[in-house]
Prior knowledge:
alpha+beta; NADH Oxidase; 7 helices; 4 strands; about 10% strand
Amino acid sequence: xxxxxxxxxxxxxxxxxxxxxxxxxxxxxxxxxxxxxxxxxxxxxxxxxxxxxxxxxxxxxxxxxxxxxxxxxxxxxxxxxxxxxxxxxxxxxxxxxxxxxxxxxxxxxxxxxxxxxxxxxxxxxxxxxxxxxxxxxxxxxxxxxxxxxxxxxxxxxxxxxxxxxxxxxxxxxxxxxxxxxxxxxxxxxxxxxxxxxxxxxxxxxxxxxxxxxxxxxxxxxxxxxxxxxxxxxxxxxxxxxxxxxxxxxxxx
Length: 252
């Protein structure tokens, strides 16, 4: 009797396995790494059309605090060295403080205007874009204090007197988060621009905003909804000319 029951149980088990195995396999989705084609297209569009917006910033329409907070929350998914998570975002909406920061930006821009500029061949895309960029930068120069929100990305620490590896680690821990912030804004119909000229007077800006001396300011981003149609990818130097395989200037 015992041998009979054992054999019966084994037969039932095998039958159930034979019946259920294909069914279970059919219910398990075949997940592949990476995004779907539509998701990839959306991601590529976001990455290639997130521009520094200046002339098209809407100086009238307010940007909701919740939009800024969500973009910062997304930005803080960026990597930081040793997982220190030592980023800070200073959001400036007070009109007087916005004007003070804008004045420091203009002061820095005036100094930068007198510095030497690189020259490029006439067929270089940077040559063709220069006048348009100057006009756009000039508009921001005049209207920065009117932009509804200014955001300064900062990070704990000072490394200007440290070795290159320390500098790379510090800036490598805040700049990805600042770029992610711009991408998150762009996905929500909000424009921004990457500016650094106020850093010529960083200590004065820190005094205006109460930023401690132990904190490094990395980038100032004017933030506003943008006007007009969608953006297009910019004309760039071909990636192949900037890609080196295994050794410098080795292409494939």
